[in-house]
Amino acid sequence: MSTTAELKQRVDVAAGRSPADLVLRGGRIVNVLSNEIHEGDIAIVGDRIVGIGRYDGHVVEDVSGMYICPGLIDAHVHIESSMLAPPAFARLVSACGTTAVVTDPHEIANVLGVDGIRYMLAASENCPLDVYAMLSSCVPASHLESAGTTLAANDLQPLFANPRVLGLAEMMNFPGVVSGDAACLEKIAMTRGRVDGHAPGLGGRDLCAYVSTGIASDHECTTVDEAREKLRLGLQIMIREGSQARNLAALLPLVSTATADRFMFCTDDKDVDDLLAEGQIDYMIRTAIASGLDPILAVRLGSYTASRYFGLNDLGAIAPSRRACLTLVDDLTAFRVRRVYHNGKLVAADGKSTVPEATSEGTPHPNTVNIAPLTSDHVAIRSPSNAGPHRVHVIQVIEDRIDTLRSVEAVAATNGRLSADPSRDIAKIVVVERHHGTGRVGVGFVHGFGLKRGAIASTVGHDAHNLVAAGVGDDDICLAAEHLARIGGGFCAAADGRIVADVGLPIAGLMSDIPATQLSRQLSHLHESVRALGGTLRRPFMAMSFLTLSVIGKLKLTDLGLVDVGEFSVIDVLAD
Predict the structure, then answer these.
(1) Residue 440: partners with Cβ closer than 8 Å, 6 or more residues away
(2) Which of 35, 111, 183, 236 is most buried when burial is the number of CB atoms within 10 A of its CB?
(3) C-beta of residue 420 within 8 angstroms of C-beta of residue 472
(4) Could you tell me how many helices (H) and strands (E) the chain has, helices first?
């Protein structure tokens, strides 16, 4: 709340009786409230815009020729998926023009529970952008995977006292909601604020049942028809463009002047490499404009619509009383960010953060990778007989998608075990429970990685974040998994009995404690090593991380076994 003295100062400056703290002079304002571009000085007092027109100030910055946009807002993001700790993430994306994000910390919540959510809130204080949180609704995502903990409604409720908590995050267990599951409905009923949705492919009466609970948004639309049905039933559509899921091109045809207020931009899951190479919400705006969307509407979807949806009434537009969170570009069509102001302070210039690097404090539990001893016997898929081949269910990876297809393929048996077949791009996939050392291991087959030899492993495995590995040899799979346990989590590649590359993620096995550019160099070397093993996917570890998510796709794998997502049940690897 503002004091009387603060309000008096704002009034005096706005009325022209006193100079502003800062004046941005000569720019062209992209006004998402009136849907126009016009000239005017912007007068700032403290962290607030107080006037637009002609003003003097203690500091006057000439921004002639630049377009001044509201600070950009990412409507739904998992910071953990960047693999950066919150301070490093904030420095990187604020240089892209983002001044606020709404995060769902369910990745770390699946590992550390409420302690993980509290860590993300604490670690993101005093950053060069605002980090708001939606409380993780599905920990674990379903009963078909084993997380580090389980969060019930009464575990989440105390966190609503934090003013940066805006509501309940994506309700992924849409079968539970549709069937009237009491635990799902209890979380929705106790929520203060918005409830975000996650309902891939849901339609008809089931979608009506889902929306009837008050769930207000969805970021899983992949087609115009799906998005149109959800719009008709009142859902706000978050258009997603992340590293693995890219839906912007498919959904843009639905955006018009008439519908723009029903859409927002989000990245969901975008890794450090893609953030450095492409940008964040600025990339979505740039791409949307290049695809023919009106620039003002593109900026609107990247700022104002998210602020309205979440009730962030002091963000998202350029007007008196709004916070001075501003993104400046010198060409509205190219949309290359030149300057970024957060709460009236310059935080980035010419694509570089002007904020000093900050170190991130570790999580309450420094080593979160606890697996039982692993041998080739634990990851074997037993053959019913040595006669073969045998028909098995195979997960089909789709490049740049988080869902999967499925097929039935014939694989050979050797010494009573079913084997990978690199000649047909069929690898073994293994998920090892990594939170409590239970020794549970799920095994299956996957197509699409291109591996000719060796194995890759990761402690990033949405959403329960068990240890997941894929490879053509059982010994290399076990070697890679045990290596990650020794280093406290991350990614690695193994071949011929040795580790050929690794990247440590010591914060909950999800995030690094080093700067973005240094982490990117490590990842580049890792990806080169995977390509040397025959890997063909653009982001093999990102793709693998979603093969364990039991609520989207046709076929997935968890520590409990092979999951038929449509039937929401565990099935046998053997198809006969």
Answers:
(1) 146, 432, 433, 559, 560
(2) 111
(3) yes
(4) 17, 32
Q: Which residue type sits at 475?
A: D
Which of the pair, 318 or 388, is modelled with greater confidence?
Answer: 318
Helix 114-123 to helix 86-94 angle (10° resolution) is 50
Q: How confident is the model at residue 364 (pLDDT cuts 50, 70, 90)?
A: low
Q: Is the pTM of this model over 0.85?
A: yes
Rounded Cα gap, residues 297 and 288, in angstroms = 9
Q: Please, which residues have CB within 8 angstroms of residue 251's CB and are 6 or more apart in sequence?
A: 221, 224, 227, 237, 239, 263
Length of the chain equals: 576
Find how far residue 412's CA is from the centre of its chain: 38
- Alpha-carbon distance of 413 to 411, in angstroms, equals 7
**127-173 pLDDT per residue, tens:** 999 999 999 999 988 889 999 999 999 999 999 999 999 999 999 98
Go through the domains of the chain in sequence order and give each one's CATH number.
72-287 (3.20.20.140), 390-571 (no CATH)
**pLDDT tops 70 at residue 363:** no
Residue 95 DSSP class: T
The whole-angstrom separation of Cα 342 and Cα 327 is 9
